[in-house]
Amino acid sequence: QVQLVESGGGLVQPGGSLRLSCTASGFPFSYYEMSWYRQAPGKGRELIARISTSGRPTRYADAVKGRFTISRDNAANTVYLQMNRLNLEDTGVYYCYAQSEDVPDHWGQGTQVTVSS
After folding, report:
1. Quick one: which H or E segment has residue 44?
2. Which tens digit of pLDDT belongs to each residue from 16-70?
3. Which residues pair with 84 in a beta bridge?
4. 3-class SS of residue 13
C-alpha cells in the first residue's frame, strides 16, 4: 500500500521556523523525484520545492528561495522541508508529492502550517 505521511506542521509566529517531514512507503522512494506543494486558503496548489532522486539538483519557488531548504534521506524514505523566516503568506496546507517516469504519482494527505502572531 502506497503511503506518503507528512508531519511537522503547526502554528508558528512570523519569523519562526518549522521542519516538515514526509515518510514514504509502498514504492521505491529512491527512484522518485520528490516535491513539496502548498495550497494557501482560497488558492490553487503551487510547487514550493523539488529535489531529484540523488538530492541534487533542487529547485524552489521564488517566494521561498533563501528561506526554505528541501532535502531527502533515501535510506529513511523521507523528504524534508526546512522552513525559516516564515511569514504570513506561508500559511497553507503543505503536500508531499512523488513522481517518476511512466508510473503513477503519489500525494500525501497534507499538513497544515499556520503563520500567525
Report:
1. none
2. 999 999 999 999 999 999 999 999 999 999 999 999 999 999 999 999 999 999 9
3. none
4. coil
- Residues whose CB falls within 8 Å of the CB of residue 38, separated by 6 or more in sequence, listed in order: 45, 46, 48, 90, 92, 93, 94, 95, 113
Q: How far is CA 6 from CA 33, 97, 117, in A?
A: 16, 10, 24
Q: 71: which 3 cell numbers?
A: 532535502
Separation between Cα atoms, residue 25 and residue 42, nearest integer Å: 31
Distance (Å, whole) CA 117 – CA 112: 16
Handedness of CA 42, 37, 94, 100 (dihedral sign): positive
80: number of Cβ within 10 Å: 19
